[in-house]
Specification:
- About 35% of the residues lie in helices and about 20% in strands.
- The chain is α/β, with parallel strands linked by helices.
- It has a single domain, classed as Glutaredoxin (3-Layer(aba) Sandwich), CATH 3.40.30.10.
- The longest helix is centred in the middle third of the chain and has 16 residues.
């Protein structure tokens, strides 16, 4: 199940950029953050894929969503210029950004390569 993040929950579960200058991951599990907007067609297209992945990788990764319209400060903090944009956050490495509605197969490869998680 994907979870919608506000600025407050983002600071708590992912990265507190107000407290830390350097990337410090706050989560227990690697995660994907989907920066989206309700009016965005490609965002709507990828939403069901992310729901399926959240079930397939349950207990191994978290999948979060950030509404760029409601959370403009978060979108600005990560220089989101186009949506959908996804931030892949491994536990002990730097996060990586990907843009566009990626196919499920490509997302699974990124989960394996960047997040170091297998099904």
């Amino acid at each position: 199940m994907t979870e919608l993040l506000t600025k407050e929950t983002f600071l708590e579960k992912v990265f507190n950029y107000e407290k830390n200058k350097e990337w410090t991951f706050e989560g227990d599990l690697p995660c994907i953050i989907d920066f989206y907007a309700d009016w965005c067609g490609p965002c709507k297209a990828i939403a069901p894929v992310l729901e399926v992945l959240s079930e397939e990788y349950k207990g191994k990764i978290n999948i979060y969503k950030v509404d760029t319209e409601a959370e403009q400060e978060l979108a600005a903090a990560f220089a989101i210029r186009s949506i959908p944009s996804m931030l892949f956050c491994p536990k002990d490495e730097q996060p990586q950004m990907a843009n566009g509605a990626l196919p499920k197969q490509q997302l699974e490869k990124i989960i394996e390569d960047v997040l170091k998680v297998t099904k």
